[in-house]
Amino acid sequence: MFIFDIQIANYRNYGRVSLKLDRGLNLFVGDNAQGKSNFLEAIYLMSTLRSSRASNDADLVRRDLLQTEFPVARLSCEVERSAGNLELEVAIVGRTTDATHRAGKRVRVNGVPKRASDAVGQLAAVLFTTLDIDIVAGPPLMRRRYLDMMISQVDRGYLRAMQRYAKVLQQRNSLLKRVQGREASSAELNFWDQELAHSGGVIMQARADALGHVALQAGFQMDRLSDGQERIEVIYRPALGGLDANDSPIDETEWTARMLRALGMLRSREIAAGATLVGPHRDDVLIEINGMPSDSFASRAQQRTAALSLRLAEASYLRRALGDDPVVLLDDVLSELDARRRRGVLEFIDSFQQTIVTTADPDRIRDIMTRAAGRYLVSAGTITRFEGE
Ligand code: ATP
Ligand code: MG
Predict the structure, then answer these.
(1) Which ligand 1 atom is at minimum distance from the Cα of 31?
(2) Domain limits at 188?
(3) Rounded Cα gap, residues 43 and 102, in angstroms
(4) Are residues 165 and 311 in the same domain?
(5) Which protein residue has the closest C-alpha to ligand 1 atom 4?
(6) What residues pair up with 19 in beta bridges, in sequence order?
(7) pLDDT tens across 201-241, in order?
């Protein structure tokens, strides 16, 4: 798929932007703090309905507007897809002075209002940023987020299971505390164990399945990018209190059964802790480079190459799951790569219908400048197309 038209209003540092985009490589050049990352964040937000960096929707609305009565940012785009063209509109309402306006997001898909969770992945996208190194070097949360953002774009059931799981987990944790304080009986846990293990099974099965593809692809990409010098292994580490060793269950029902067993085994410890100690909220993914855990042994450059390989693997996963290309977004990552790795990334990305690349340093990526189908200048929240160099 590819975006051929995009409109932005009052988003971050943007006033109004209206752009036509091309198939192929679109290059956005601009000095620091002009709006390059904001632009890609806007596109990624239309895909996932979640910001790639803000924790609060109100941050997304242009700051000068926040004091007004109805602060709202609007994003929309038109997309050509093999599954039929898409018109997507997202309105983000900031905190308002008038209590009758609710803060949050409103979404329309082809003109029809949708819940945000039903609009996720209508536009599929993969975003590369310089922070991706955290997938490899950061805490487990970063790896779970990598999986969640990827899988929820193509699997509505996964997103629903995640939402259900989060609710049940909260209920179960508060019950565990009440059991601990002898305000409730432990038999009450049985129901919540079933509920938790049911959504948990859906999530674990989907993660195991996605990682099967990702592990193969990341291995292939890592080999390519490093000229056969580096080997990466990506292994799912579900949190099942020791029942996670060796063999991996083959379907949801088995994952659910295994999680129920883990909950049974750990019950007294969970009551003592007042918290749920097993399940997908504690999952991790082990990433090894040349046989050693990447977070504590790998060099910075190895970690960066591994992160890049995982994003390329994500693009491949989305393509396979959708039968269509996701839009590939690269936020200032090319200029930090050496020429060989850059070539390796571009070679693969070239097979996707559309790539949107930002850079603050066009001199370092002259080769890309000359190949771009469209070139744009980002300056103080405005975007203008330019021809030539
Ligand atoms: P760099 O090259 O340093 O990565 P960039 O072009 O990617 O820069 P952005 O991250 O897109 O820059 O940010 C551009 C500007 O947007 C920043 O100066 C930031 O302060 C501003 N900004 C962020 N949120 C808002 C908002 N809600 N309202 C107004 N301005 C904002
Ligand atoms: Mg930036």
Answers:
(1) 2
(2) 131-323
(3) 23
(4) yes
(5) 32
(6) 6
(7) 999 999 999 999 999 999 999 999 999 999 999 999 999 98
